[in-house]
């Protein structure tokens, strides 16, 4: 067990911890509601605010005085996490000295990682507050409840949010025709979050935490498991299963029985609730695959295997269950209440060796069998078949590794995949995300950045291994799932991951690895210390406090100043960090200003719109999308200069090259037009629409030249168009020769392109006769 020295320099008012933690929980809930902070434009202002707050905190005399001396201890979260954040930020900044694939993407990553560091600095500072550990645990759970229960409300039709339910008729993407995506608008991300927090709630119930954390865990366990099933995310299921197995291994032999029983009971009720709500509510009764009589509805109608379905009473009862939203709400509430009651009984049960062994041998297998029977037959197919999406992702990974060869050591800055994947893709798939956070880091920052990220993840796991092994399971779930999906592109992912790590590091000494047995008194709030009975322990009254040592170091949360070296060096480091964060904050406000100007321009018209877009370009000249918006509204001469200037910030931008080629063609500059269009075709191999448009632009130029009496120039332009057409047709033959190509971009030789090529040939014949 990790022992903590007894010092008390924490803030003496517990309400301070409550206020700070609830404020942080509101921020996390808002981050989840705003699409998980996936879109950078939604995060600029909050990133700037976080950086400004952290910079101000680092410059205060009180912070300097508290961190003037270092105390020895175990590996604190700040040593691994903050050092890793600083290293990754430095690598992104270093790429600006070269030619990054996207200056805009690199700036966004610098700002994001600066904000993550600021968040962690503020979180570590708050860890000194009295009663931080249980209050932070409750706050994190509340933010998770907001995201998960909000998703359920959307499924049942109580809440309207864009794409809160993903509907599809593609059996490769969904067994029942709909997947719960939540505020993240992406079912796999919601599944990863629900799975990780579900494991954490089981660990809280097993280890006998404070009253409020246990209450929130009891209430949330079954709904979280239900949401995990409704996402139909196989990757999240596998990651959660791996996390569950790790939790079973590290939780300790005396507590494995309770872990098995709690998880079995939760999943059984979640399976029952799923069977009752998977086709209820407004989300599932509209037109499409799940409409009554539709293919998806018929496929999901089975409950038990056919041999058992004919005479099963349970089958007949469930088939009579109404499919309305109100019935679904009743089912969810009943399952949650039954789950909470059952979990409370299992917590309080005294499991002797013989009784516990008997229950483990009987209850989990029985619950697993019932769960398998309760899940619709279509979901069994989702679990056991249709792995075409996995094969498609292997294409992503293969192309990403090929792209990484261009800059294997330090990468090419932020946004590499989004900017360059169209130039290297071996199949015409659609996907602006590489679907692996680790591969994305390799592309952006090279092997150096991937090593930093790996070390940072390992340091967090090592800290949790020493401090609170029960939290290894949810953290591992998040880290594993990010290897096969886009989780790391969500700001919410990092806020949650660092929040879980801080909760583990700040666990009171009685909860750190020495997981109490609820059956022997720890499961009852009356048996806990007076402060913990309410969920708010008193850090100032013993060694059981995470904030009992200076700067939170007793809990394994040392402030960033707690590193080896002189006091002057630490102050200098804090000053440099504050200056960096202040600069990042100013940069965030500038990017946000450009974002607001572009939004205002979208609502304006005429000269006012042009003026707003000019101001947006001046505020953020690296943003290609603003340039292309403005380019459509200005004369060709100015447009060419505007687009060419954008290549300084995104030299391999296919959109800029397409626009440039068309603009030069409009200006009658064939050499530049042809060069730009060939560059665009190289950077966007499978862009059927743009290739067709390029041919049409050149053909129109040739017709204008012929009409003006320049037959020779017209012939050269027509020959250039036919050369582009030839490359287009050759690529089309290559794609048609592929076996089962992933053609999400619907690449094909268009009829318009063939007609344009015919007109160019006709022009050549006419000019030859002349």
From TrEMBL:
Residue ranges crossing the lipid bilayer per the database entry: 12-31, 43-60, 81-98, 110-127, 139-158, 178-199, 236-252, 259-277, 325-346, 358-379, 446-465, 472-493
Chief location: membrane
Membrane topology note: Multi-pass membrane protein
Keyword Transmembrane on entry: yes
UniProt subcellular location: Membrane
Residues of the O-antigen ligase-related domain: 338-453
Keyword Transmembrane: yes
Name of this protein: O-antigen ligase-related domain-containing protein
């Amino acid at each position: 067990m990790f022992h903590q020295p007894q010092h008390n320099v924490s803030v003496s008012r517990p309400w301070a911890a409550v206020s700070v933690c609830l404020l942080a929980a509101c921020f996390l809930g808002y981050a989840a509601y705003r699409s998980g902070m996936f879109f950078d434009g939604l995060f600029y202002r909050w990133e700037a605010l976080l950086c400004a707050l952290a910079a101000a905190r680092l410059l205060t005399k009180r912070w300097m005085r508290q961190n003037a001396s270092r105390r020895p201890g175990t590996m604190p979260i700040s040593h691994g996490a903050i050092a890793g954040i600083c290293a990754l930020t430095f690598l992104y900044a270093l790429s600006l000295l070269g030619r990054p694939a996207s200056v805009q993407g690199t700036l966004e990553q610098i700002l994001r990682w600066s904000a993550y560091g600021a968040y962690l600095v503020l979180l570590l500072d708050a860890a000194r507050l009295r009663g931080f550990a249980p209050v932070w645990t409750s706050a994190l759970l509340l933010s998770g409840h907001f995201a998960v229960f909000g998703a359920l409300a959307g499924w049942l039709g109580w809440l309207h949010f864009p794409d809160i339910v993903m509907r599809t008729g593609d059996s490769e993407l969904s067994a029942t025709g709909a997947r719960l995506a939540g505020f993240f608008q992406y079912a796999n991300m919601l599944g990863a979050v629900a799975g990780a927090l579900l494991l954490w709630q089981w660990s809280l119930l097993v280890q006998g935490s404070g009253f409020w954390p246990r209450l929130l865990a009891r209430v949330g366990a079954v709904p979280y498991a239900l949401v995990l099933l409704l996402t139909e995310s196989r990757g999240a299921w596998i990651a959660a299963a791996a996390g569950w197995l790790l939790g079973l291994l590290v939780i300790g032999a005396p507590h494995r029985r309770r872990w098995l029983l709690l998880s079995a009971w939760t999943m059984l009720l979640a399976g029952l609730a799923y069977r009752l709500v998977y086709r209820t509510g407004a989300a599932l009764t509209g037109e499409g695959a799940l409409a009554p009589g539709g293919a998806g509805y018929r496929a999901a109608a089975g409950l038990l295997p056919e041999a058992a379905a004919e005479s099963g009473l349970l089958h007949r009862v469930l088939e009579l269950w109404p499919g309305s939203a109100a019935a679904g709400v009743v089912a969810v509430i009943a399952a949650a209440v039954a789950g909470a009651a059952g979990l409370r009984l299992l917590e309080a049960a005294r499991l002797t060796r013989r009784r516990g062994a008997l229950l483990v041998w009987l209850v989990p297998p029985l619950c697993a069998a019932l769960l398998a029977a309760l899940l619709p037959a279509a979901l069994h197919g989702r679990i056991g078949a249709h792995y075409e999406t996995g094969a498609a992702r292997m294409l992503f990974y293969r192309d990403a590794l090929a792209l990484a060869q261009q800059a294997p050591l330090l990468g090419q800055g932020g946004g590499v995949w989004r900017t360059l994947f169209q130039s290297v893709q071996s199949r015409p798939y659609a996907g602006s995300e590489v679907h692996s956070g680790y591969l994305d880091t390799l592309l952006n920052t090279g092997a150096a950045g991937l090593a930093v990220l790996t070390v940072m993840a390992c340091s967090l796991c090592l800290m949790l291994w020493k401090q609170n092994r029960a939290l290894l399971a949810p953290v591992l779930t998040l880290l594993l799932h990010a290897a096969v999906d886009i989780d790391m592109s969500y700001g919410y992912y990092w806020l949650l991951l660092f929040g879980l790590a801080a909760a583990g590091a700040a666990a009171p000494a009685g909860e750190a690895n020495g997981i109490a047995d609820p059956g022997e008194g720890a499961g009852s709030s009356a048996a806990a210390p007076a402060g913990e009975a309410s969920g708010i322990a008193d850090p100032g009254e013993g060694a059981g406090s995470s904030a009992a040592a200076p700067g939170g170091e007793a809990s394994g949360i040392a402030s960033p100043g707690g590193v080896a070296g002189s006091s002057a060096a630490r102050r200098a480091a804090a000053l440099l960090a504050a200056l960096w964060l202040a600069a990042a904050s100013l940069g965030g406000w500038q990017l946000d200003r450009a974002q607001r100007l572009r939004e205002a321009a979208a609502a304006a018209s005429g000269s006012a719109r042009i003026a707003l877009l000019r101001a947006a370009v001046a505020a953020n000249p690296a943003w290609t999308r603003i340039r292309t918006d403005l380019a459509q509204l200005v004369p060709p001469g100015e447009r060419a200069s505007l687009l060419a200037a954008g290549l300084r910030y995104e030299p391999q931008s296919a959109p800029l090259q397409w626009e440039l080629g068309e603009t030069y063609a409009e200006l009658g500059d064939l050499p530049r037009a042809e060069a730009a269009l060939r560059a665009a075709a190289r950077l966007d191999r499978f862009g059927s629409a743009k290739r067709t448009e390029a041919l049409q632009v050149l053909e129109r130029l040739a017709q204008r030249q012929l009409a003006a009496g320049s037959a020779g120039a017209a012939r050269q332009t027509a020959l250039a168009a036919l050369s582009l057409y030839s490359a287009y047709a050759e690529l089309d033959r290559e794609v048609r020769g592929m076996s089962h190509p992933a053609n999400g971009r619907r690449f094909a030789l268009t009829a318009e392109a063939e007609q344009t090529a015919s007109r160019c040939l006709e022009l050549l014949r006419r000019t030859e006769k002349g």
